[in-house]
Amino acid sequence: MEPEKTDVGTAVACVILGLSFLIGVPGNLLVIWTILRHVKQRSHTVVLILHLAAADLLVLITLPLWIYSLLHAWVFGVVSCKALVYIVSVCMFSSIFFITLMGMERFLAICYPFVMMRWKTESTINGYLVLLWLLAVLLGVPASLSQSLDEGTEQCFIREFSSVTQAIIMLCLETLAGFAVPFIILIICYCLVAAKLRKINFTSKQKSMVLIYTVVIAFTLCWLPYHVINIIDVVCILRSSTEHECVPQIVVFSSGALVFISSSVNPVLYTFFARNLRGSLEQSRLVRLFQEMANHSNKHRELVVQQQTDQRAANTHIELMSDSV
């Protein structure tokens, strides 16, 4: 029965990876080309989407090698195995970092617009992007160092640790830095943003906000199974004090393939949200979506700034009246 399970898991993984490649590569290329070619005034959100698409594209172009490896064996050597795992790991961290920064940017724009106005410079956002890329590059090193080839199946899926302590530290670091901490930050930011928007009675359509929410939800659904398996592995190691797999291989393969969906789903979401936009023949709906996101960002900020200015003026008037009395 076990070989049959493995065959089913391999088939499911190959189908998912194949669809991710066919949809994600053209989709992310279209997003990158659209922003670079047609969107002249780029808000912070649009710039982050550009870097997110680049990170996703780097992941997706490695998929043909993974599919071939699943169907046959890893014939590209240990060095290429470590290199590709490193690329996927770096892009995993960078993607969640960009999505987290996107949430923080929304939070500052809505809740602290005056701080956002000081932060709204090209050099500042570029500095944060470089910092996040460097952080992702550093955090991807442990995954590459622990990766090795399975001598039995000749596959590039095995991680070898020098000790139980190292295994626990690396698994926890991957889940905490690559998922748990950013996810908590996103939840806090978007809860505060939602509360602020309700407070100021902002009732116009917020396509950019809904799109960002959807990107976060999609990323969470795609990556959650992978990190749940990490947690299960840590619990098993702590209970048995040995390094062994506690999750069936078919589940590992399926969750690993699901991770790649997160890199291909974003262009589909952008297209979905752009479907109802009307524009001239010279301007695609995707271009209008990104331009609308930039406009919404400015409108959010202007509305909150105006409300805070009015509130300060009212407070000053009350103080003057009190002093005159």
Could you explain how this protein is built, in words?
The protein is an all-alpha fold. Helix content is 82%, strand content 1%. It has 11 helices and 2 strands, in the order αααααααββαααα. It has helices spanning 2-38, 44-60, 63-71, 77-111, 113-119, 122-139, 141-146, 164-199, 207-240, 249-274, 285-324; strands spanning 147-148, 158-159. It has a two-stranded antiparallel sheet with strand order 1-2. Helix 4 runs parallel beside helix 11 (285-324). The longest helix has 40 residues, at 285-324. It starts with a helix and ends with a helix.
Summarize the structure.
The protein is mainly alpha-helical and 325 residues long. Helix content is 82%, strand content 1%.
Strand order of the largest sheet: 1-2
Range of helix content:
over 70%
Proportion of residues in β-strands: under 5%
- Could you name the ranges where pLDDT drops below 50 across 5 or more consecutive residues? 1-6, 276-283, 313-325
Q: What is the average per-residue confidence, as pLDDT, rounded to a whole number?
A: 76
SSE run: HHHHHHHEEHHHH
Features:
globular; 11 helices; 2 strands; two-stranded antiparallel sheet; mainly alpha; disordered N terminus
Topology readout:
Blueprint: H1 2-38, H2 44-60, H3 63-71, H4 77-111, H5 113-119, H6 122-139, H7 141-146, E1 147-148, E2 158-159, H8 164-199, H9 207-240, H10 249-274, H11 285-324
Antiparallel strand pairs: 1-2
